[in-house]
Structures are given as structure tokens and as C-alpha cells.
Amino acid sequence: MVHGLRIADARVEFTVNPLGIDERNPRFSWILEHEERGQYQSAYRVIVSSSIENAAKGIGDVWDSGKVNSRDQVVKYNGPSLSSFTRYYWRVKAWDSKGVEGDWSDVQWFETAVLKPEEWVGKWIGGGQLLRRSFRVEGNVVEARVYVTGLGYYELRINGERVGDRALDPPWSEYDKTVYYSVYDVTNLVKNGENTIGLILGRGRYGPVSPNRAQIPGLKYYDEPKANAMIRIRLSDGSVVVIATDESWKCLGKGPILYDDIYNGFRYDARLEPYGWDKVGFDDSNWVQCSVVKPPGGRLRSTATIPGTKVKGTLKPREYYNPRPGVHVFDFGQNITGWVRLRVRGSSGVEVKVRHSEVINPDGSLNVENIRGAEATDTYILSGRGVEILEPKFTFHGFRYAEVTGYPGVPSIDDVEAVIVQTDFEPTGSIATSSKIINDIHRITWWSLRANLLNGIQTDCPQRDERMGWLGDAWLSSDSAVLNFNMVKYYEKFIRDIIDSQRDDGSIPDTVPPYWNTYPADPAWGTALIYIPWLLYVHYGDVEILEEAYEAMKKWWNFLNSRVKDNILYFSKYGEWVPPGRVFSAEYCPPEILSTWILYRDTVTLAQVAKVLGHGEDSSFFTKRAEEIRDAFNKLFLTEHGYYSKYTAPDGTVRMLGGSQTCNALPLYLDMVPGNRASDLAKALAHNIEADWDRHLVVGIFGAKYVPEVLVKYGYVDLAYRAVTQESYPSWGYMIKEGATTLWERWEKLTGAGMNSHNHHMFGSIDAWFYRNLAGLVTLEPGFSRILIKPNIPSGLRHCSASLYTVRGLTSVEWSKADNELVVTVTVPVNSTAEVHLPKFGESTMVKEGDKVLWSGGKVAEISAGVLSVKDTGDHVVIEVGSGRYVLTVKTIN
After folding, report:
1. What is the pTM of this model?
2. Band of the pLDDT at 212, cuts 50, 70, 90?
């Protein structure tokens, strides 16, 4: 019996059944399954229906794509204009490579939010910390949705219940350009009769610090907190009732939150909370009318498909210290982002304080020097009404240790827990090896990414008086992020943040949103605007973000190009950041080398983007400019001994600076080095690492990303592996040996007041190296339609396995070696093909697939199902396969 393709995972905007999207032409995507190997999609059909009944019958009364002969698995809606506040139902079916028609997918749905600005009827209101309104519903509620935002943060309550599970909402943005709102299904909370809606407002990134608190210098704030919301209630008679923010709402100016700030923390007086204020029947006669206030200026956008910040778990203390009477310090064993939750019973007016830190002193007391001006302190004044559960709102901390003082009695382990706050990412990748140090580096990278991918952006660190969206940090670890999590919608949002921050002259800031005035960005930081959209295209096949960002990319490139002299970009602010023993050093890597290399890469990428988008003239222009920049780069910097820049001191002394691991690896990575020089330069780089530095990488954040790549590219696999797995300084292993549970900002273990965060992800680029080089998992064509599986097998590693859930389905590789045998198991998703590169053990190599011999005696023996071709490339036997699972064994023939 012949079976067709099955639809396994149908999504809208890469999200399952999204509630409240505002994309006018959303994208549909799906995963395919088939029993046979080598299968692909030859055609598809998508229908969108106005009712679940029509969808179930296969009637696309809103849109029917018809049968489309295509292998595309991401398809944009192309029907009549969608209506706001409407649920649509959809299905997809596909035809396999033999033309067999598959069954319809299960019925899926998506619901629109506000598609036209004039349909948002809520007004911006403010004037208080607590906002409420009572309203009456006359009739049976069939459906109720709330569309809500509050700046900087909010918490929504209906009839005494908290709405939603987002912990810090809305995500950060440049509020003058974009403000995000969320949509919730509140059908079960709104009832026939009397109802009450309440909002608590926090300051977040929007509102200046409370007047009685010190302001951290240099931060951009916007205005006092404000909110905008509307509830749409559909009744059983078909009528729709809308309750929106306006002058009829009541406000309490001074509530129980005495202050809230993301840096300093939270101060709360439980005695001041009006009991039952968010419930029906509360007397708000002494509250004042809310004021209609000036809008923030930004357009409203839905968060429906952007992963939100949520509570993702808790940790109990691993260790307990009591450095002084009444001072209780808890070690949670893991550096996290979040806060502490306390269980307390005490008298009214008792003040309990929680402070946070990443490190402690030898006596067990907190060491808060490295968090600098951030107080990171949460304070609670008890109400005295029995057991109280204390945790903050509208703030977060980066910490491993917490100090509790003022606690009535002695807190037990049961009374204290750390609350882990992270973005609710879908996990998509995982990797494991026989090397504990590799697994540990992966682990601390994972925790660092999760701690800093927060609030809709990618911060540098979560603990000190900074927490900014540094673009350099973001793009450096973006490859690792997309290999571990579903990042497509999150990074699309972040790219829009960069576009929102762009000035008329094309400049963008180092930090996005621009809460610091860091214009213009260092070229090696601003490259995020070009690098990340291209990464999204390569990894997810996301053409839409290229289209959306293209003009902004060109404007940024033109800004940099305007600063070029003789095709060399001298403009720089930071350069190769934090090499061992220093923050920055022109001697190690002259900034003009790095800036010009970045400009060259940006130019090459723009030529590729222009080609994808069909802008042929632009593509030719950028290709030509790239050649000119490359030639100038080599002419000025390439010497007999590597890449150097000439500096003339005031006394006339000439010095040649550079020649470092980073300086030489960067042009090798991009094939900028003239062909007759490349292998010699790679050999010199390897000698520098092997002999001069005892197999250590002596690099900053850019070299950490590219030196290991170059070593593998030129065949120095064992050296790369030994350098990456070092446990002595400087190395990732040194961090772990010294107790790191997240990546450090510096190679050194520093605990003083300098620049030494213990939770920084910018060295996390190495995790992508594990996936791409040790496991050998790389996409050759956008969206993993064509895959390269080429494990690089160092002598010190016995086995490695990695899996990745791509937009086409599960891709995985697992290899293990023993004696003269290598077993490689690969999984290729339906509608994709893969090139599997297997190392040869000399001319007597035999390759089997299952029980069948594919290669023996230097030639093809037979072809099994799903195998498309077998060929010899000298060092490897390359097997091209279609979809399916393959167990390949390489051994020596006796």
C-alpha cells in the first residue's frame, strides 16, 4: 500500500495556533513525514476557511492556493484582506515525489488582532500605580479577548485573577517608534454581570526612577508609566461589547510599590495594598479619575508570535552561609536571571531585604563589587496577615547568591527559592559528546544565552548597571542561539529594533534599543544589522526579514563607506575586545584591520542579499566594491609574516602592530588571502597556537569565533580541539575549572569593581563550532533544504551526537569511533537532501549502509534506497542521500 506525505507540524508565522497576530499576509509552514526514504514534496495546497466546519470539509472559502507545484514549505498568505479580531482555520496537504496526494493536515487556526490602527479604540491613560474599572456585561459571554500594553511594564488582572503568564511585559523597544501589546483569551474570566479589570504599572525601561531614588547616569527614559487596553466581548446574541482605557478608569496614585527599577530592585509595603482592589465590589470612591496622557509615539505591534519572558523554573539552595548573626546567604548553585521568592510569617511593619550577587567573599558574605551601581535589592514590609509569599514585580536580577536579612526567625530551605526567568523559547537543538569539558562549555553557554535573551532583546549581562542590547555580543552568539532555540521571530523583532534606532544619516548605535547614546556603532558591532538577517535567511529560509531590513542595511553600509579612505575603514571604537589580560589593545589587533574586514564581509553579504532579492545592479555594485576593499586590505596589511598595520610614533619610530591569531585568522576565514599565501599563513597561525602559546587561543571575542573555524578549515582539527578544550588560562575550560556556571565577560577570573560580568554570552560563539565542526551539521542551502554532514573527528574525541529541529524537520548526526571503524548515523528530513562526508582510512576503505556495501576497493559497489550518489573526493567518500535515517559504517578492509 502506498502512503503519501503526512503533515506533522503546521504553523503560522513559525508559531502553533497564534492568538492575536497583526501580520496582514502571514506565512504558513509545515513539516513532512513519509515512510519511504528519499521523499520530497512535489506540490502543496493550502486552504484558509472562515469556520472549522468548512476547514474540516476541505473548503477554503477565504483562500485556496490550489495545487501549487513547488517544494516550498514556507508559504505566504495570498488571499483577500484579512479582518481584524477574527479567527481563521486552515489546512495544508502535500503531494510526494511520485505524485501521490497526501491527506489534509489537522485543522489549525490563527486569530488576528488589530490590523488597522483606527480599530484600536483604547486611549493612553496614566496617573497612578494601580488602575481599575468595573463594568457590567448583559448576556452570556461566548468569547472575550483583551489587547493590552503598559509602559514600561504592567500586570493585568480580571476579577481578582492574574491574566497571562508573561513575567516582564511588554518587551523592550524604542518606544517612540514601536510599542508592543499582548493578546489574551479571557473568556473564562469575564462573566455575565459585574466585572472588574485592573492594571498595575511598573517603570521598566520607560519610566524614570522614582523621585526618591538615585538615577543611574546616562540612561534614556521616556515618560511616566501609562497603559492602553481594550477588551472585546462577544455575546451569545452576536453583539460585541468593547471596554477600553479612557477617562472613566480610576487610579490610585501611591500604592504598595514604593519603587521599582530593573537595576536597583523593588520596594513593597504590603500594608498599603488595598485588599480586593482588583475584584468586584471594591469601594474605589477615594481613587481619582485616570488622566488621558500623551501617547508614547510608537506604532502598536502584537507580541503574538514573539516568545515572551516567563518564569521557567525554580532552584532550591545548594549551600547556606551565615557570615554574621541575622545575615543568611544562599547559594543556588547556578548563575541565573530572575529573583528570589520568600515564604515569610511575621508582624506588620517588619522589613525583609534580599540582595543578589554573582560571587561571594571567603567568609560567605556577598561580593557586589562587579554589579557596580546596581543595588539589586528587593525589600518587603510585611502586612502581618499570616504567611506571606514575597517576590518582586517589574525587576530582575542576575545572581547565583542571595542574602536575606530582617527575616523574622531563621529561614529554612523550604522558605527560599530562586525563580528562573527566561524567554519562552522552543528548544530546537542539542549536542552531546564523550568530552566532559565540551559538554560543560555547551552547558554554560546555554545558561548564558538563556539569561541574556530577555525582554525581547539580547543583553550583554543581566546583573550590573548596564544590561544593554550590545550588537556585537548579539551577532557573535547568534549562530549558537539559532542552533539551540527557535529564534526566528525573536530575532526579527530585534532587527526591527535596530531599524527603529537608525538615524537619517544611516548610523545605528552600539546598543539597541538606544537606551544609551552610543551612536555611531563600531563597525564590528553594527554589523549585526547585516549579519543576523542573513543568518535568519540561511537558517530558516526567511526572505521576509531580508526584504524588510534591506534599505536599512544599505543605509548603514553607506554610512561606513562614507568614512572609508582608500578603501580602508579606520573608524573604530572597541576593536578586538577583551583579549587575555586587557580590555582592548591596538597592538594585538589594530582596529583598522578589524573594521575593514567587517566592511568587506558586510559588502559581500549585501551582494548576496541583493541577489536573493532580485536587485541585480546592487549585487554587481557590492561585488565590485568587495573586490576593491579586499585588494586594498591585502595591499596595506599583508606582509611577509602576516597581517600587520604600520604605526608611526611622534618621535618617528615605526612599529608594525598586529600579526596576532585574530589578525591572521579573519582574512583566512573569508578567503581574502591570495591563494599562494593562504596555506603558509594558516601554517604560521597553527605554529603560533601550538608552539608559541602552548596550544592556547590568545584572542578576544572575534578571534574566539573565527580562529577555531580557520584551524579546521585548513586541516588542523586536533590542534583546534586541544586549544578549545584547554583547562588552563586562557580558555573556556579555565572558567569551568574556576567554578563558572555561565560564561564570563573576561578570560580572567575577576571579582572586583571593573568590567567583569560572570554572565556574558559573547564568548558563546564556540557552541556553534561544536555543532558545525565536531558534529559536522551545516546548512548548504537556505532552510536546510540541502545539508552538509561532515564531522571533523579529533583524536581526543570518541563520539559526538547532535540534533536540530529545522524548518523542514529533524536533522541529526551521531558518530562514534573504535579502533579502525567509524559509525555515522544521520537523519535527513523529508524534502531535504544531504551530503555526508566520511573520512577514508586509506585506499582499503569500505563504507557500508546497514548491511549493504556502498564503497569498496576505491569504487562504488551498490546503491541502497535513498542514496542518490557515492563519490570519492580524495580524503573522503561523499554520499548524497535523500530523506530518511542512514547508518553508515567506515572500516578498513583486511
Report:
1. 0.97
2. low
